[in-house]
Amino acid sequence: MEKIYENDETNIEQFCTFQRNNSSDVYANEKVIFWMDENNCSVELFGKYNPCRFLLTEFKIVIIPKIEKKIFEIFQDDQFCIQLITIENISLDDEFKSISIITIDVEDFRKLKLKVNYESSQILFEKLSELELVKESDYLNHAIKYKEFILKSNLIDSNNILKGYQIYDVEKEYERQGISDNSHIILSLINKDYNLCETYPEITYLISSKEITEQTYRESAKYRTKNRYPVLSFFDKKTKGSIWRSSQNRAGITNENNISDEIILESIGEISHAELVYGIKKTLFICDARSIISAKANRLIGAGHENIENYRNTEIFFCEIENIHEVRESFQAFKKVLHNEQKNEEIKSQIDNDYSLIHGTGLRNMYDNTNLFSEIEKTNWFKYIHKIIKSSILIYSKVNLGLSVLVHCSDGWDRCPQLTSLSCLLLDKYYRTLIGFIVLIEKEFISFGHQFKFRLGLCPMSTEKFNTKQISPIFLQFLDCVHQLWKEYKSIFEFNLEFLTFIALNLKRGKFGNFLCNSEKERKEKKIYEKTISIWSEVLNNKNIFINEQYNEEESENFKIRDFPYYKIKIWDEYYLKYYISSKKKESYNSNKNSINLQKENADLRKIIEKLIKADNNNIKLLTEEEIKLINNNYK
């Protein structure tokens, strides 16, 4: 049964005969590990097993059910193409010995069941187990092969391939924000060659004053964990308010202070116009994403938070947003509820039938109608999302008053970019355009060192530098927050939900280079920009499908927000339930099957009628027994 093909283009093309989009599933130069034909494998569809072809390559699984083309339309284009990197669990039930059931759970909420003969199942399960711990280099290799495939097939315009990694230009973006209006904000190369902070970009924008020298920043960097010193994230040219970011300080148990750090933060507060316009004395607002208990506990490991007594005209607020471990546990519980098929059906039914949910009153009525959402609420996923949105609105309100805001969490690369990004999204209509949102992600998450490689699990699990406790859906949580705002204020966004879903689905599929590394430095060292294609290249090439037809530029210009009540939080069904087939679609599947059978029977009946018309009354004897049986069955 087992066959090995290495770079065998013909066999792969023959395998994909039944596919609708065979160009997007398997690359011609992809190594085949194992395959089965429809005589040895079947896949569960709507409670019944259908014969299918099964292909295991070095990067993915492709399943091709042998079903009618009309029925195929019920499914998503990529329903049966699974990147190995996205597989969460594989289980084998070989209780019956002659036939085994293999269940594949995918992190994008897909669940596929295969019925395979016993011998083949043992080989397949062994192969999948061998491939489960994918090497870090394999992810990059996959992205490299995808770029080769794109270039060979001309699926993306060559100009868009080049533009993908060029959309975000740091100097152009900060010039657009209007920093030229403020002589106290300067472009700095203090981090050239990443000598001061390895996880920051080379170019950063800093506060400048007579008291601040390069050494001042070097001292501040030593005082901040991971050397992540205060840098500019956003400048509001209307209000002169600004958002800055850093990591926590190293106050420790002894609550040590740092004069250099105090000078920098005091200077950041001094550029605020809040006192001039509103008479606000405390011109620097520190937004610590953690709880005060967590911040104080960090003193035990030599870190901590700002002592306000040491920072003039400063106020501090603790957002109480959960850390990566709590977010991971919450998401796992959330997925467990959504992996339950009965729960899926309830959710889809509520979304389809509850007019109030679609039109903005959110989950309040749904809680009254079903216990389902109380189960989801217990996972805390909605609660955590709501906290992030509420804290972002707080930052938004402070910047609107002209205040300077410093945002940090522990290391400044998880909760911090969630808050800075969402605040920017609320403050600046540019970030609510398609290109602007791309710039926002590139600036706040990718450039400033969100740990994509660790958070997405794109590392060998066996290495000493990494363990599964580093995995956490921080960026997905941010996208869900954006989705919440989009659902409530859809007319202010130029992009649609398909755009957000596209990004979410491609975080771990290994096609693009954007999310493979932890920092700008690492991307340059691995030559990501030269070797891979950007996810934004594919977006630019298909821009029309990501545009929101309800976008109103004037409404976006005049947008204001004061609050976001908890009951408005909704399930992102476009992503979490993308691959779930509802009962309505199952009915469509069954009606399609019945329609096909009826079409065949009607064709046969027409032939019989034509035969009878040409004959006289005695010619009923000319009909075959099968034809008479068909008439009797249809006219009982």
Describe the structure.
The chain contains 29 helices and 15 strands. With 636 residues, it is of the alpha+beta class. β2 and β3 form a beta hairpin. It is elongated. The relative contact order is 0.10.
Helix content: 40-55%
Number of strands: 15
Mean pLDDT score: 84
Summed up, the helix count is: 29
Low-confidence sequence ranges: 1-24, 354-369, 592-598
Sheet with most strands: 8 strands, antiparallel
Sheet/helix structural class:
alpha+beta
Radius of gyration: 29 Å
Question: How far apart lie the N and C ends?
Answer: 49 Å
**What global shape is seen?**
elongated
Strand content: 5-15%
How would you summarize the topology of this molecule?
Blueprint: H1 9-15, H2 22-25, E1 32-36, E2 41-45, E3 48-57, E4 60-65, H3 69-72, E5 81-83, E6 87-93, E7 99-106, E8 111-117, H4 118-132, H5 136-153, H6 158-163, H7 170-177, E9 185-188, E10 204-207, H8 214-223, E11 231-235, E12 242-245, H9 259-270, H10 274-278, E13 284-288, H11 292-297, E14 314-318, H12 324-338, H13 341-353, H14 355-358, H15 364-369, H16 372-378, H17 381-400, E15 404-408, H18 415-427, H19 434-447, H20 452-455, H21 474-488, H22 497-505, H23 520-525, H24 528-531, H25 535-541, H26 553-557, H27 573-576, H28 583-613, H29 625-634
Parallel strand pairs: 12-15, 13-14, 13-15
Antiparallel strand pairs: 1-3, 2-3, 2-8, 3-4, 4-5, 6-7, 7-8, 9-10, 11-12
Helix pairs in contact: 8-9, 17-18, 17-21, 18-19
